[in-house]
């Protein structure tokens, strides 16, 4: 037994919730909406508040070249050990909720704050990070700060990114005072843990307070273009048509059938579609649509991509249309660290909380960090699964429970 295990610690729930609400009120736009796009004035306001809190907690604040913020708690005798890193992001989408990202960053800060106040002796530094531009609304790609941090994109290239408003990320970071000097990756984490609201309905619907996230779906996006022949909707018999619209519809229902047959592991979505000439009485000559395919297993994701390609070949013959595809995005699935996932389950059950293993359907900074260190995520319920929306909501009791589970995992990883 070391002395840390006798401490019986919990977070200061009042402080966590107060900060979450205060950050949630920060950086509102002219319409009073919560819009803290990366490197904007709103983002600066959020960053300034976070840095103030990090300094109040006595953390060493460091900013790297891509604007990632780190608050580091160095103990007196652990400087040479690899730090345990917690975190997420505080940038938002347009008209966002107040939990996405912010909950993970502020909980990380709260865990460090509480451990420090209560005399916990960390065997390694514990740090909390807020990664730049996770949402990717203003600058592409999303999850940029963590991608750069993990070495998947150079800081120089990322800083050249041109925003939807014509601005350049590097100049904007400079302008708001967050173009730091540290090399991305300067902290080599012992492990990374990200606490996040689920942004999906599973925990809420199943009434389970904690998700031990064991993997993250691979994502395959493609654009499919089907070319047929435009013709009169009244005079052309259906067996003489080359109907690009009908072929597109067949692809949509095919994808749903495939997803249904996968036992819930594959999900597939056609989220955009466009017809030409797009007239009520003309058979479409052209259908252009996107396919979003996801699966947590790379082998299965590949099989689904291949099956779709075969289906398109057959469809081109049977409907007498020509079909071309273009890959837009491809991310491999990520498997999180089994040991940490088990620790999360144990921490939950130690606090009398039900938990379940789950797959993250959304992208997160954790998927980038998994490239460089053992990584896992903890989810808490999102009411009705609503996210990227001001209606996003998680109950205070769930927020506090999730942060306490994080605290237990941290004291485990940095206390023995
Ligand atoms: Zn997020």
Description of the structure:
The chain is an alpha+beta fold and 416 residues long. Helix content is 34%, strand content 21%. The chain contains twelve helices and 16 strands. The strands form three sheets. Strands 1, 2, 3, 4, 5, 6, 14, 15 and 16 form a nine-stranded mixed sheet that branches. Strands 7, 9, 10, 12 and 13 form a five-stranded antiparallel sheet that branches. A two-stranded antiparallel sheet has the order 8-11. A hairpin with a 5-residue loop joins strand 1 (60-63) and strand 2. Helix 1 (13-24) packs antiparallel against helix 3 and helix 3 (102-117) packs across helix 12. The longest helix is centred in the last third of the chain and has 21 residues, at 298-318. The radius of gyration is 24 Å and the shape is elongated. The mean pLDDT is 96. Bound molecules: zinc ion. Zinc ion (ZN) binds at residues 88-89, 100-101, 134, 196. Zinc ion (ZN) binds next to loops.
């Amino acid at each position: 037994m070391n002395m840390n295990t006798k401490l019986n610690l919990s977070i200061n729930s009042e402080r966590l919730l107060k900060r979450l609400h205060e950050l949630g009120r920060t950086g509102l736009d002219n319409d009073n909406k919560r819009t803290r796009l990366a490197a904007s004035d709103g983002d600066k306001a959020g960053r300034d508040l976070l840095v103030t809190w990090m300094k109040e907690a006595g953390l060493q604040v460091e900013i790297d070249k891509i604007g990632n913020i780190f608050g580091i708690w160095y103990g007196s005798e652990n400087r040479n050990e690899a730090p345990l890193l917690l975190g997420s992001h505080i940038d938002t989408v347009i008209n966002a909720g107040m939990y996405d990202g912010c909950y993970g960053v502020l909980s990380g800060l709260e865990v460090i704050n509480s451990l420090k106040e209560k005399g916990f002796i960390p065997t390694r530094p514990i740090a909390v990070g807020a990664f730049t531009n996770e949402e990717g609304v203003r600058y592409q790609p999303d999850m940029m700060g963590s991608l750069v941090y993990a070495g998947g994109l150079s800081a120089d290239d990322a800083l050249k990114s041109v925003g939807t408003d014509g601005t350049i990320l590097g100049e904007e970071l400079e302008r708001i005072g967050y173009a730091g000097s540290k090399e991305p990756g300067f902290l080599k984490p012992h492990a990374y843990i990200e606490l996040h609201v689920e942004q999906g309905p599973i925990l809420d619907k199943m009434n389970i307070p904690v998700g031990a996230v064991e993997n993250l779906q691979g994502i395959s996006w493609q654009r499919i273009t089907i070319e047929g022949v435009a013709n009169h909707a009244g005079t052309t018999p259906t067996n003489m048509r080359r109907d690009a619209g009908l072929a597109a519809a067949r692809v949509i229902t095919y994808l749903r059938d495939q997803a249904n047959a996968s036992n819930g592991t594959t999900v597939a979505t056609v989220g955009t579609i466009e017809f030409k000439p797009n007239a009520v009485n003309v058979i479409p000559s052209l259908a252009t649509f996107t396919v979003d395919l996801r699966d947590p297993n790379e082998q299965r994701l590949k099989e689904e991509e291949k099956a779709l390609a075969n289906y398109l070949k057959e469809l081109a013959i049977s409907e007498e249309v020509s079909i071309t595809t273009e890959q837009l995005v491809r991310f491999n699935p990520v498997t999180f660290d089994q040991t940490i996932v088990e620790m999360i389950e144990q921490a939950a059950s130690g606090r009398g909380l039900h938990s379940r293993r789950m797959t993250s359907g959304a992208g997160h900074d954790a998927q980038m960090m998994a490239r460089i260190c053992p990584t896992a995520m903890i989810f808490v319920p999102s009411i009705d699964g609503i996210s990227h929306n001001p209606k996003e909501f998680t109950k205070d009791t769930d927020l506090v429970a999730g942060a306490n589970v994080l605290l237990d995992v941290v004291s485990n990883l940095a206390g023995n």
